[in-house]
Specification:
alpha+beta, single chain, 3 helices
Length: 179
């Protein structure tokens, strides 16, 4: 006997949230593809939001690789749906995030997430195929800049982070170690 499962999903959009209830069984549930991430981005022309959706990474049916599917809805060329691969689920997810960041950058559009235009909330990744020594130098530069920014932020602690402009305070990138 197939045991029924009662599912409740909370769907959220820009106008609010609604609860969706439905019944399914374990077999249906295992085949169901629900996204693990949805993000709404706004453009400077106040059009409909661009919606990023990333599905759960899953193992390829043949071979050892993993894949992660994502969709970008709301761009002028319709829905961008793509699949990226990785050695494991985490790498597939990270590759999907980096791929989305690059696709959005290449549109030439200005997006906002949480109110600040030019920021989609997806940080640039350090490519893992670079030599380890080079990656360590990049990480040291980031750590040094973050420490300097934290000192400045403490001095101006009454201001929101978005108003503290690192360049206007004279902070520059440190030199890369030449190990």
């Amino acid at each position: 006997m197939v045991r029924p499962i009662f599912l409740r999903l909370l769907l959220t959009n820009l106008t609010g949230s609604i609860n969706v209830y439905f019944f399914c069984n374990e077999r249906m549930l295992s085949k169901m593809e629900l996204p693990i991430l949805v993000r709404y981005l706004h453009t400077d022309d106040n059009a409909e939001p661009v919606v990023l959706t990333i599905d759960k990474p899953r193992r390829e049916e043949v071979g050892r690789d993993w894949k992660c599917e994502f969709r970008i809805k709301g761009l002028s060329n319709g829905i961008q749906a793509q699949t990226v691969n990785g050695i494991d689920g985490l790498q597939a997810l990270l590759n999907a995030l980096e791929h989305i960041r690059i696709l959005l950058k290449n549109t030439g559009m200005c997006f906002s997430w949480e109110g600040e235009y030019g920021d989609v909330g997806i940080p640039r990744m350090i490519p893992q195929y670079l030599p380890r020594k080079f990656v360590r130098n990049i990480e040291r530069c980031i750590d040094k800049q973050r420490a300097e920014f934290s000192k400045v932020r403490e001095q101006y602690s009454g201001l929101p982070t978005s108003e503290i402009r690192v360049q206007s305070l004279g902070l520059v990138a440190p030199e890369v170690d030449k190990e």
